[in-house]
Amino acid sequence: MGAMDQAYKDALLKARIAQSQYRDELTAWHRTVQANQDGYDAAMTAQQDAITTARAAPGGVARQTPAWVLYEKAADAGKDVPVDMLPIQQRFGEILTELPKYADGTPMPLPAALQRVVKTVQEAGNTVDAKTIQEQLRVLGPYTRAANGATRGAAKQMYGAFADGFDATATALPETAAARNLWLQANSNWRQEMALEDVADWLRPGNGIVHIDGHTGREAINVRTLLTRFEHEMTDPHSFFARSFTPDEAQALRASLYRTVGTPAMPTTGPTIPERPPLPGTIKLTLKDIPEVGPQPMPIDPRTQLTPPNFHPWGTLTAIGSTLGLGHEAGFPLTGRILAGFEAAYPVVQGSNYLLSKALLTPSLRPLVERAIQGGTIDPALYGTLTLVLEKGAQGERMR
Questions:
Q1: How far apart are the C-alpha atoms of 377 and 374, rounded to whole Å?
Q2: Beta strands in the chain (DSSP E)
């Protein structure tokens, strides 16, 4: 049992070590899963923060006084000032030819309000008063923020044509004229507002910078595309975008947009979940120090004769006689007396083959056995004699 106990202790120790390792692996697995989730959440949050930052950039440089307020003041101050309509009419003709067209070449129709503005310009003479131009600007104002891109673009271009006409008229006025500076400042504010509207348009989904992520359903921003477009507009010599800002405004707008640099890309899949560590397997007992046991002995019938190998009954009787001190010659007489005693004692043992125990329990045999084992050992020949005699008695009993 000592080896078995040790084997059990070893197996228990291995099991505890395996459980400890599994707990460590499971803890590391949970940390990895949490880190992946945190990274995913951080990327999602960074994307939303970048979009918010970019969309807030125009508001950081917007001028305090809206352009329409200045136009109203300029119209009141110079309502009777004639405005040259020829450049405005030429620009309107270009705008109409640039309108989006259907597949058959037919231009897409403009809203009714814009069509009325176009009709007013086309039917005007060489000049109109500033008050008439201001009325057209009031009509165009809401359409410069229309949801429809074609409508919004056309309204902005028409508004710009009137602003250019105001610029040409204002520069021809004396510097002391009140309407001159108001018109120039109104035009500057309007152009800046339109440029900031362009930035807002860039950041609407579907315009190449912000899109709806198909995996998460959230808005995602491509910061590189945003900054590339901004720098292109700021350096394009034919673009009104760069001329719409003062140097300080341009620098402030650039700084706001560049705060989005370093934004991680929107994850294309959910957080990565590594394979969970497997549970520890069965710990087997290893009995290293237990000797191998031979095959199980065959069952022995109590009636089976237990005859030692090479057993010679008469030689054994002679040996017992010598052991009992009766001499070799007395072997046969002694044997006869032993046999007679066994014959008389046999009813007590009832055919049992448990040799020594039954002999010691038999009064007539006990003194003989005790004399045979006085030296502390028993002569093996005694076993054969008892077997022979008891078997003979058992056969006689069965015959009776």
A1: 7
A2: 82-84, 127-129, 210-212, 219-221
The per-residue pLDDT for range 278-309, each reduced to its tens digit, is 877 776 655 554 555 556 566 655 555 554 44
Is 284 buried (19+), middle (13-18) or exposed (0-12) by CB count in 10 A? Answer: exposed
Measured distance CA(336)–CA(97) in Å, rounded: 150
- 73-117 pLDDT per residue, tens: 887 887 778 888 999 999 999 999 988 888 888 888 899 999 999
Ranges of each domain in the chain: 313-399
**Strand partners for 295:** none
Measure the CA–CA gap between 240 and 228, rounded to whole angstroms: 17
Work out the angle at residue 333's Cα, subtended by the Cα atoms of residues 330 and 339, and round it to the nearest 5 degrees.
Answer: 130
Residue 211 in 3-state DSSP? strand
Model's pTM, two decimal places?
A: 0.53
d(CA 372, CA 376): 9
Copy the structure tokens of residue 185.
């400042």
Hey, what are 189's tokens? 């504010």
Rounded CA-CA distance 367/385 in Å is 15
Helix (H) / strand (E) containing 115: helix 112-123
> Encoding tokens for residue 270?
């959910």
* Tokens of residue 71, six digits: 């136009």
